[in-house]
Amino acid sequence: MLHDSAETLAAYLTKQNRYTTLAAEMALQAGKRASFARIAFSPIVRFIKFYVIRQGFRDGLPGLIHITIGCTNSFLKYAKMLERQKSDAALR
Question: What's the DSSP call for residue 4?
């Protein structure tokens, strides 16, 4: 079986946008809430955990790109949750 994982950065980021939307929806359905603190600190904690503690820096530039996308995804998930929370509150 041949697995071709080559895709453009644009295609990858489009896919990640869908994933963060889905993750936000699932978290809200599970009763989780977003806050400004979570939006601000989740990407920082993720960076420290994966890039520093788990030594993602050893992967060089690809490692830095990977963690940057991961941190952005974390930010986007909570930002989308907060946006939805505010939208839902406005409808009430």
Answer: -
Q: What is the pLDDT of residues 34-80, one digit of tens each?
A: 999 999 999 999 999 999 999 999 999 999 999 999 999 999 999 99
The Cα 74–Cα 20 span in angstroms is: 8
Residue 57 structure tokens: 């820096």
Say how far apart CA 87 and CA 92 lie, in whole Å.
9
Whole-angstrom Cα distance, residue 54 to residue 91?
43
Q: Give the residue among 78, 77, 54 at the shortest CA–CA distance from 66.
A: 54
Q: How far is CA 68 from the centre of its chain?
A: 10
Tokens of 81: 């949750």
Asked if the structure places residue 25 within a domain, the reply is no
Which residues constitute the domain of residue 64? Answer: 34-92
